[in-house]
Amino acid sequence: MKKIPIIIFFLLLAAALTFFVFDFKPESQSDIQTKENETIILDSQTESAGDVQVSATPIINEYLKFEMVFDTHSGDLNYDLVSISQLKDKDENIYQPLAWEGDKPGGHHREGTLNFGPSSDISMLPVIILEINGIREENLIFKWDL
Question: How many CB atoms lie within 10 A of CB 48?
Fold first, then answer.
């Protein structure tokens, strides 16, 4: 009779250990993987170049995109964002955007999405660095640690 509670205790202990060893995997930010219909939105960052304020928000799903907002109170925003933007990783590999989906060049306010294409390789990086070169003759750098 005294053995039954001890046996039950060890069976429960074994079941708990089995659950944690085989089913429990702590999620870390470096393990970001995009699954079908899963979207990861990282924090927005804002930088300024002269009188231009630029906000960037990474969106990772099957594609890596950045929601971008450009604002200024003087001059026009006549920039070809595909040609002046790039991504870098920690090893200085460079990724070029495929398309700008948004407002056309000009005006004091532009917003849209900068699309870097499929995220299968890029989403596994430990860091994403977005560079936008030549805004009011300055270079803007946005950095997100994953």
Answer: 14
